[in-house]
Amino acid sequence: MKKLTKEDLPKTWQSEKKSGVYAEFDKDGFVTHYGFYGESNDSSEHFSISIDYQNRRSVVDKYDERRFLAFDPALDVDDESTIEEALKDFAEKWIGIISEEGSHSPPDCSFCGRSSSEVQKLVAGPRSYICNDCIDVCADMVRG
Length: 144
Known about the structure:
By secondary structure, the protein is α+β, with helices and mostly antiparallel strands. The chain has two domains: 6-105, no CATH class; 107-144. Helices cover 24% and strands 30% of the residues. The chain has a five-stranded antiparallel sheet with strand order 1-2-3-4-5, covered by helices on one side. A two-stranded antiparallel sheet has the order 6-7.
C-alpha cells in the first residue's frame, strides 16, 4: 500500500494542537492520525481517522455531544494487494470527509447561515445546525 504523506492531505491541517484540522505523522513522515477538532458554544466535536499500516487497519471516530461511534472497514479479502487498495481507498475517503467537515468550522446555522459567534446557541443535528433565533421562528410558525 502506498502510505499517505503530507502531500496527500488538503493544505488546511496543522500539528501543534488538536484544534481545527489536525494531523500526526510517524517518524518517516507518513500520516498516522488526521482529524477535525472543533468547539462551539457549549459543544465539542471531532471526526478523525487513525491509520495502522502494519496491521492494515483504519479506525474512524466521530464524536459530538450526542453520539460516539468507531468502526473499522470490513476487509474480508484474501489477495494482499486488494486489502492494501481497500485500506488506501478507505483512508482517502475519510480524509476527504474529515476535511470537508473541518472546512465548515466553526459551524454555521444551516438555516440562516450565521456563525456560532453571531448567535447565542447552536443546536447540532446529524448533519446540520440550527441557531436559537431560527428555533424561535420555527416555534412561532408551528404555533401560528
